[in-house]
Structure formats: structure tokens, C-alpha cells
């Protein structure tokens, strides 16, 4: 069990998200940085999508009531176990009464705490993810705070203390692969070119629902509104301001703004680490190239689980 | 029937039918969603049916876009359309008492109808659920009598109560949970259209119908008590 001493800015229990529910108007939720979630889980020999705590900007401080394997992944939050520095992407074994303190983000924007056996919360519609909008799922449907106690599962027998992979860099200029569509035909060729050449700046309007960008305004051929259609994690909407919004894990399921492009699934975790002021460049790719990236990512984790 | 495929990177394919809000086009969406669910195509994760399109989320490690397009095209070719299959009509009680209808005055003023006429027209026929979105269980309904059309509030309310029934432009609907919103509120239903304690927490699905019927405050309170006790199910009839 882990008891929260301070919850940090926004720490929530997340897994891969809720599936089969968007047709009912529920957002999928789930980890923003699923790459880091899977990485930490793989190192702990957990199911890749076992529930983790995802922290934003400023991390939590918490107390272990028993011996617990854990791993931190994602952004650099200068974390410590008692007084000792914790390396990212490394398996540690906390002793009873150890205290983990995760500071403020110095690189990246989110970090992920996984424990051997995963965190255990009641599932809502098949998922442990927190849906903040409707206050359901995760830990009582809300962000973690002082005195919360989260149960942990039974760790796999094969966990190796010290097992690690190198931590990722989080550069201030983020290049993400994106595929034109579903409504790229509503924009002029010039607009599409601008979109894939421009340097966009991440604004402070950034949360689990989406990231609003500052940059060149796009003019679509005839208004930017469409008959509301389906939205996915990674859809890039162009609202009337002409400036893109990237829809993230807590996106609405449907919307009426034209979507010029969609970020490749395997690239979304980079966006989860974007901080206000960072630069984003969209790199044009085909559906097939995006699919290749996703398959490679999946193979990477399969290999990692085997070692 | 016209359709085309739109891509959402490696995450989803959108099957776009004619871009026209109508029962016919929406019927294609509902029919295709039903056959895809029946077929259980390996790698299909979930579906988002909307007014004129169906977004199909898939796992590209299991099925690639190219193959998925072929599968969907062959399903569309063999799809029988026309006439909803097993569509249900959910008969939903609405109390139009003044404590629940803060905007009745706006609607009667804008439409030139009396309160009784507004209620009679609003409860006159079943409305097709084109899609769910915006909030869990928020149904975009088609078919409201045009005479009731009233523009949204100039400045949206910060919180609309759960179960509120209102009009926004030429649409009508129910707020399943408390939420900000700009619709003209006419009444309230005691029915919980979103009940997180149920295994299937949303009462209805796209392709079904909702028909409102008026109840007095007294009847409202009786139904509400039953709802609270978990002893209420709205009357469901078969659509022709």
C-alpha cells in the first residue's frame, strides 16, 4: 500500500484507458504518456497496461507501508527515495516506511510511478483510469491527495532490482509524425504546407483534454466547421481562430471543427511531455508509416518483457 | 449509397457517408455499426457513430488500414438498409412545471406558441437518436417540430441540472449530468439516463428513439422516488 503525503499538482491513477465507451459519449481517459507507462510496467514485469500513477508538473510524496518494487519513468522530476536520488527507468525496492518524493519537472512535463503488481483501484467500465470530468474511475474519480491510500497488487516473481533502460531526452523542439486527414481536403494546399512547415508554440492552455498551439493561422476553403464527427487521441482540430488544438487522452468523443491531421499513435507520448513554451513541428507521414511506428513500438515492448 | 474512407493516422478509419443530417444517412451509420459489431472483425477496438459517419478505431498490429477498408467495403456492399432493425422507443417522462422550466418564457415568446402548445408539440412524436457525444449519454436528437426552434441562450449557464430537458436551435435533448450549457430549459426528467452503477450505464444507444410525455409535479415525484429506490424502468416500445 502507498499512502499519499502530498498529491502534487495533478496525480491520477491511469491505465490504457476505457474502451468501447466512446459510442456512449465517454472519453477514453488513460495515461497521457502511455510509452512511459508501458516502459515502467515492462521493467517491473507487470502487464504493460497495469494501473500507474501519472503525475503532472509537480509530483507526489508518499509513504510505503511495506517492501515494494517500483519504477519511475517519463520526465525528470528530481525524485528521491528518502535522501537518495532515484534514476528513471530503473527498478528499485522500497523498504517498509521508505518515503518517495517526486519534485518538480525539470525535463518533460509528466512522470509515471509504477509498482510491482500495479496499483489496485476498483474498475469502472473495465478500466482503472480516472475520468476527472465525470469524477469516476481511478481513485474515487479524482486526483490524489493527502491521506489517500492506494493498494498495490502482487508482484511477479521475476522482478530484478536494478533492471533499467536509458532515460529518454525531452528536447524543447518536439517533432511528431502526423498523417493528413480526416478533413485535410477542407484546407488549401498552401494551408497543408504551412501546417507541416510551421513551428508551433505550446501555450499554457494545455491539459489532459488538449494542447492549444500558437502559430500561423490557417484559412480553410469554406469555414472550418463540419457536421460533428468522431475524435481520437491525436486529432488536430482547426477551430475558428485558425490555430491548431491537439486532442489528448481526455478529448471529447465528437466535435464539429475540421481536423487537418492526426498525430501517429506512437508519437503521442512525446506530446504528453510538452511544456508551455516548447516548439512543436508536425512531420508529414503516411498511414502506412504511422502503422509501422506503432508495430515497432509494440515489438519493442514485447522484447523488453522477454528479457 | 455514397461513402468514402477518411484516415485518422494509424488510430482509426472514418467511414464518411453523404454529408447531410437526415434519418436516411444516419440509418446507414447505425446499420454499418451493427454489422461491424456482428462481424467482430479482429483488431477493431471500438466504434464512434455520428450524424453522417462511423469512426472505427483499430489496432494496426492486428489489422492494417488497407485490409480493414476491404472488410468494411464488403460489409457495406452486403448491407441491407432501410428500416431500423430492432430500434426501441424509450418513453421518457418530463415535468414541465415552472420550477424546472426557467426558459419557457423565452420559447413561448420566440415561437409565438402558448405553453400548452409548446408541451404538446414537444411530446408529439419520437425523436431519433442520431448520436451520443458531448457528455456521457448526451443524445443528439433529430426530428423536433421546426415551430419549436429557439436560439440558444446568449450567455450559457455555468451549470445546468441533471435531467434537464431543453431546446438548442432546432435540436432538443436531455442533460445526463450537471454541466455548463446554453440550451433553453423546458423541463426535467426524473429518469437517470446515465447511471454509473449499472453495467451498461447509458439507457439508450444511437439508432433508438426517445419520446417525451408530460407528467405533473406529483407524478414526477413518484417516479423520482422509484428511480432512487432502483425500481423504475421507463416504458420501452418497439419502433415500427
Gist of the model:
The complex is a heterodimer of chains A (307) and B (240). Chain A is built from four helices and 20 strands. With 307 residues, chain A is an alpha+beta fold.
Give keywords.
heterodimer, A: 307 residues, alpha+beta, Cyclophilin, 2 domains, 7-stranded antiparallel β-sheet, 7-stranded mixed barrel, 14% helix, B: 240 residues, Gyrase A, domain 2, elongated
What does this structure look like?
- The complex is a heterodimer of chains A (307) and B (240).
- Chain A is an alpha+beta fold and 307 residues long.
- Chain A folds into 2 domains: 2-152, no CATH class; 173-304, Beta Barrel (Cyclophilin), CATH 2.40.100.10.
- In chain A, 14% of the residues lie in helices and 33% in strands.
- Chain A is built from 4 helices and 20 strands.
- Chain A has helices at 34-43, 189-197, 268-272, 287-306, and strands at residues 2-6, 12-14, 52-56, 61-64, 68-76, 80-81, 84-85, 91-94, 99-101, 107-115, 119-120, 149-152, 173-180, 200-206, 210-214, 225-230, 235-238, 245-247, 254-263, 279-284.
- In chain A, the strands form 3 sheets. In chain A, strands 7-6-9-4-1-12-11 form a 7-stranded antiparallel sheet, with no helix packed on it.
- In chain A, β17 (235-238) and β18 form a beta hairpin.
- The longest helix of chain A has 20 residues, at 287-306.
- Chain A is elongated and about 65 Å long.
- The mean pLDDT of chain A is 96.
- Chain B is elongated, with a radius of gyration of 19 Å.
- In chain B, a hairpin with a 2-residue loop joins β9 (164-168) and β10 (171-174).
- Chain B starts with a strand and ends with a strand.
- Chain B is an alpha+beta fold.
- Chain B has 2 domains: 3-77, Gyrase A, domain 2; 88-238, Cyclophilin, CATH 2.40.100.10.
- Chain B contains 5 helices and 14 strands.
- In chain B, the strands form 4 sheets. Chain B has a 5-stranded mixed sheet. Chain B has a 4-stranded antiparallel sheet with strand order 1-2-4-3, covered by helices on one side.
- Chains A and B meet through β16, β19 and α4 of A and β1, β2, β3 and β4 of B.
Amino acid at each position: 500500500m502507498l499512502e499519499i503525503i502530498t498529491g502534487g499538482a495533478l496525480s491520477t491513477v491511469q491505465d490504457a484507458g476505457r474502451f468501447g465507451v466512446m459510442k456512449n459519449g465517454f472519453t477514453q481517459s488513460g495515461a497521457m504518456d502511455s510509452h512511459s507507462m508501458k516502459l515502467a510496467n515492462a521493467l517491473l514485469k507487470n502487464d504493460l497496461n497495469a494501473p500507474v500513477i501519472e503525475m503532472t508538473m509537480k509530483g507526489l510524496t508518499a509513504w510505503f507501508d511495506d517492501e515494494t518494487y517500483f519504477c519511475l519513468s517519463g520526465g525528470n522530476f528530481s525524485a528521491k527515495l528518502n535522501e537518495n536520488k532515484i534514476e528513471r527507468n530503473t527498478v528499485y525496492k522500497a523498504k517498509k516506511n521508505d518515503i518517495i518524493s517526486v519534485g518538480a519537472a525539470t525535463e518533460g512535463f509528466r512522470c509515471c510511478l509504477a509498482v510491482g503488481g500495479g496499483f489496485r483501484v476498483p474498475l469502472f467500465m473495465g478500466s482503472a483510469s480516472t475520468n476527472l470530468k465525470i469524477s469516476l474511475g481511478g481513485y474515487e474519480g479524482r486526483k490524489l491527495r493527502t491521506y489517500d491510500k492506494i493498494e498495490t497488487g502482487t508482484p511477479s516473481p521475476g522482478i530484478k532490482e536494478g533492471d533499467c533502460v536509458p532515460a529518454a531526452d525531452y528536447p524543447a523542439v518536439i517533432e511528431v509524425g502526423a498523417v493528413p486527414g480526416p478533413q485535410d481536403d477542407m484546407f488549401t494546399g498552401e494551408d497543408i504546407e504551412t501546417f507541416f512547415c510551421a513551428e508551433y508554440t505550446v501555450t499554457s492552455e494545455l491539459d489532459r483534454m488538449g494542447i492549444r498551439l500558437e502559430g500561423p493561422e490557417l484559412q480553410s476553403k469554406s469555414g472550418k466547421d463540419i457536421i460533428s464527427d468522431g475524435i481520437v487521441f491525436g486529432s488536430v482540430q482547426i477551430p475558428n481562430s485558425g490555430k491548431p488544438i491537439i486532442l489528448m487522452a481526455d478529448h471529447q468523443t465528437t466535435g464539429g471543427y475540421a481536423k487537418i491531421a492526426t498525430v501517429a499513435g506512437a508519437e503521442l507520448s512525446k506530446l504528453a511531455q510538452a511544456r508551455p513554451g516548447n516548439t512543436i513541428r508536425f512531420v508529414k507521414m503516411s498511414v502506412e508509416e504511422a502503422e509501422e511506428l506503432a508495430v515497432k513500438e509494440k515489438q519493442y515492448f514485447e522484447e523488453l518483457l522477454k528479457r | 449509397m455514397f461513402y468514402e474512407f477518411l484516415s485518422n493516422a494509424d488510430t482509426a478509419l472514418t467511414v464518411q457517408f453523404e454529408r447531410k443530417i437526415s434519418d436516411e444517412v444516419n440509418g446507414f451509420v447505425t446499420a454499418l455499426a451493427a454489422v461491424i459489431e456482428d462481424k467482430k472483425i479482429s483488431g477493431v477496438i471500438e466504434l464512434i457513430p455520428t450524424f453522417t459517419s462511423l469512426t472505427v478505431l483499430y489496432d494496426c498490429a492486428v489489422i492494417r488500414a488497407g485490409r480493414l477498408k476491404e472488410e468494411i467495403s464488403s460489409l457495406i456492399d452486403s448491407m441491407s438498409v432501410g428500416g431500423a432493425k430492432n430500434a426501441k422507443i424509450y418513453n421518457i417522462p418530463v415535468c414541465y412545471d415552472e420550477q424546472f422550466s426557467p426558459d419557457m418564457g423565452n420559447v413561448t415568446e420566440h415561437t409565438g406558441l402558448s405553453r400548452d402548445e409548446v408541451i404538446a408539440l414537444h411530446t408529439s412524436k419520437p425523436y431519433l437518436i442520431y448520436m451520443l457525444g458531448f457528455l456521457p449519454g448526451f443524445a443528439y436528437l433529430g426530428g423536433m417540430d421546426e415551430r419549436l426552434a429557439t436560439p440558444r441562450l446568449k450567455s450559457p449557464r455555468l451549470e445546468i441540472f441533471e435531467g434537464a430537458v431543453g431546446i438548442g436551435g432546432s435540436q432538443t435533448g436531455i442533460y445526463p449530468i450537471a454541466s455548463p450549457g446554453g440550451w433553453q430549459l423546458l423541463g426535467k426528467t426524473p429518469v437517470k439516463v446515465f447511471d454509473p452503477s449499472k453495467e451498461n450505464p447509458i439507457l439508450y444507444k444511437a439508432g433508438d428513439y426517445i419520446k417525451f410525455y408530460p407528467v405533473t409535479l406529483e407524478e414526477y415525484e413518484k417516479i423520482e422516488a422509484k428511480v432512487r429506490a432502483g425500481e423504475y424502468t421507463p416504458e420501452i416500445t418497439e419502433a415500427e
